[in-house]
Structure formats: C-alpha cells, structure tokens
C-alpha cells in the first residue's frame, strides 16, 4: 500500500513538472511586409496565441486573419475579402518542433539560435515550413523571434493583374512572442 | 471665353473634384469607428463562447467580422505592452485560461484597468473569430446604460 502511494506521488510530481514546462502567450506579434515596385504594404497582428513546450520542443502558433491591422482601411478590406478570403479561411496556424533542442538551455538566461520544422496552414493550404529563429531566455520569460519569407503562390493566394506591381510575390513575415510559464 | 473652352474647364474641374472624393472616401477611407457602430448581436459572454466551441464554422458565419456586445463577469484585466485586454474565462485548456478576450480601444484603457475581477460588464467589440482556445473581440468599448 505504501509503495502504491509512493508511486502515485511520483507520477503526480512527474505530470506536474511536465505541465509546468509549457510557456504561452495570447498577445504575440506577427507582422508582414510586402515590398513591391509600386507600393510597400505592412500589417500587424497583436492577438497571436503561441504555446511552447520546452520538454518536447513543440511550438504552436494560432492566428486569426481578421486580426491583421493595416494603416489603410481599403487595403485591409481587400486583404480580407480578395486575397486571404478571411470569411472562408478565418484561421492560420503553424505547428512545429525545435530540431536542435540540445543547443538551447531554457533554464539559463541567454540567446539561443533555433531551427524549427513544421507545417503552416494559410488560406486553407498546408505546407511544410522550416525556419530559423532565436529564443531569448530572460528572467523566466522566453522571447521567440524569427524573420522569414513566404511565397503567395505556395498558399494559392492570387494577385489580380491590376495590382501585380503593388504586391510582392514573397512576403516578409516577422514574428515576436514573449512567452510566460503557464500558471 | 469660348463656349467649348468653358465646357472643357468645367469638365476638368468636375474630374479633379471626383478624383479627390474617390481618394478621400474610397482609396484613403477611414477605418470604421467601432465605438459608434451599433451591435449586430447582443448576448451573454458564455453564449457566444459555447456556440463557438460547439461549431466554429457555423459561428464564424454568424459572428466573424461583426460587432458583438457581450455581458458577463470579468475574470481578469491584462495589460500587455500598450494593449488592455478584458478576459472572460470558461475553461482550462492547453493554453491555460480559455474563453473570450477583448482588446480595448486605447481611449478605454485606463477606465478598464480599474475594473475589479468578478465585476459584471457590458463590452462591445469587433469579433475576429475563434482560435480554438479563445473567442477574440477587438476595438472594445465599455457599454454604459
């Protein structure tokens, strides 16, 4: 009986410690920048949900397309209605895994280069996306950042002929999320 | 002045004015003033959350992109960078608290920060959807009666 109680206690401790290894935010930042010959377009989303499990290296991003904000209201309208079709495809996600976990010490302050491989879903299309980024461990928080390009055609996002020179073929994506241990 | 010249000048002036109006009211039109927009739906916070959890696609077709007024008891007020977020919590999941998160318009930030946990509030915001953990409202304003 005593052994059973001991075993139950150990299992409880293990499950608690695994749970405690998850870091999240619900107000991460993702922005994109289109640098085309005729126009530069930028939009920001400050409502990005992100979860990082430092024991498994699993990383998840959940993005609502309608949360992207543009300076110009008409651009925002076109982005939602014509390009990303946010009524039809309201969500974008990235589910990935850190491929170099041994090079990152999430318990020690510092900046660590990381590689993440996974799948990104945008506009209803899922594609493998592997990208490099940085994890900065700072006083119990983890700041994850990355900058990379995605091609519009990879996600079946078509540019109307009228705006060929206004929208770049490859869009620069900037990610910055400040993750805190789940309470 | 010759009659044909007058007509050309008038047409030119009309063209300039039309181009200016198109620029101001179409190309460079302002973002909607969400505080002044009437709510498309008014409901209890847990009602819209439960509907989204039950059927995300059907709920998106109803609420996504609409102005929604919700009422409920505040779980927490969060300050993140320059954003102030009112949260209503209905579940614990992989992402911790799950429920509704409403990011307030900056003019309501200070007033919102003073709201105590558990206070019943009415908030109006633009619904941008459900990310499998939370229903997201943005451009929130406090509704006072």
Summed up:
Chain A has two helices and nine strands. Chain A has 183 residues and is of the alpha+beta class. Chain A has an eight-stranded antiparallel beta barrel.
Question: What are its keywords?
Answer:
heterodimer; A: 183 residues; Lipocalin; elongated; B: 145 residues; alpha/beta; OB fold (Dihydrolipoamide Acetyltransferase, E2P); 2 domains; 7-stranded mixed sheet; 7 strands
Description:
The complex is a heterodimer of chains A (183) and B (145). Chain A is an alpha+beta fold. Chain A has helices at 2-19, 73-83; strands spanning 22-35, 40-53, 58-64, 69-70, 91-98, 110-122, 125-138, 141-151, 170-181. Chain A has one domain: Beta Barrel (Lipocalin), CATH 2.40.128.110. In chain A, 16% of the residues lie in helices and 52% in strands. Chain A is elongated. Mean pLDDT of chain A is 90; it is low at 12-19. Helix content of chain B is 33%, strand content 38%. A seven-stranded mixed beta sheet of chain B has the order 1-2-6-7-5-4-3. In chain B, helix 2 crosses helix 3. The radius of gyration of chain B is 22 Å and the shape is elongated. The N and C termini of chain B lie far apart (63 Å).
Regarding CATH, which class of chain A? Mainly Beta
Shape of chain A: elongated
- Order the strands across the largest sheet of chain A as they lie in space: 1-2-3-5-6-7-8-9
Helix content of chain A: 10-25%
CATH H level, superfamily name of the largest domain in chain B: Nucleic acid-binding proteins
Q: Quickly count the helices of chain A.
A: 2
Looking at the overall shape, the CATH architecture of chain A is Beta Barrel
Average pLDDT over all residues of chain B: 94
Count of discrete domains of chain A: 1
Total strand count of chain A, please? Answer: 9
Topology:
The complex is a heterodimer of chains A (183) and B (145).
Chain A: H1 2-19, E1 22-35, E2 40-53, E3 58-64, E4 69-70, H2 73-83, E5 91-98, E6 110-122, E7 125-138, E8 141-151, E9 170-181
Antiparallel strand pairs in A: 1-2, 1-9, 2-3, 2-4, 3-5, 5-6, 6-7, 7-8, 8-9
Chain B: H1 3-27, E1 41-44, H2 45-54, H3 56-63, E2 67-73, E3 76-80, E4 83-93, E5 96-104, H4 109-113, E6 120-130, E7 135-142
Parallel strand pairs in B: 1-2, 5-7
Antiparallel strand pairs in B: 2-6, 3-4, 4-5, 6-7
Helix pairs in contact in B: 2-3
